[in-house]
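Hi team,

Below is the intake form for HTH-type transcriptional regulator BetI from Vibrio galatheae. Please confirm the fields before the structure is written into the shared record.

FORM ID: S-0412
PROTEIN: HTH-type transcriptional regulator BetI
ORGANISM: Vibrio galatheae
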Amino acid sequence: MPKVGMPSIRKPQLVNATMSVIDRVGLHAASIALIAKEAGVSTGIINHYFGGKHGLLEETMREILRQLSNTVMSKLKSLPSDAHQQRINAIIDGNFVGYQAENKVAKTWLAFWSYSVHDPELKRLQQVNEKRLLSHLKIELKALFDKEQAEIIAHGIAALIDGIWLRGTLNPQGIDAVKARLIINDYLDKQLTFYSQK
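The structure came back. Fields below:
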């Protein structure tokens, strides 16, 4: 967590520099010296405000998660509370459009995702993100399915989001939000048909 009193312009500058360096050289090679050079600051600034590379990496991941949460919440607020399928699509879109789909953000997210397996704090942040996604999905799905079905389908949609996002990030053409929506809605339609026939 950055120290109180850090100039507001410095934090986004350093977060953006971190993502640019990770995009260029990868997470392991993203040294404090390279990030400081990219941001046009001294390494002392990073050490002073973030306690080193690890603190800056945590803040970068928090910023990506904040942006994701803000995007999803903004999309949900613009929709009626009973437009459940539209609201599910808004949650899907929030994971595939805008900030999240930017190449350097996607590459940074991918690097953090793999790194979080071995880092307790990054793992905790990833778990918070997963719980938030499932919670948003279950709220909408419980209006369409019973509780147990909603739970299973929420995990299915989350797995599709993760899988499509991962494949899109590794694809030189990037993430195709339209295709993601089509695939996930096809899955959701099949679930609606299946459970309505039981």
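SUMMARY LINE: The two ends are 50 Å apart (CA to CA).

Thanks, M.
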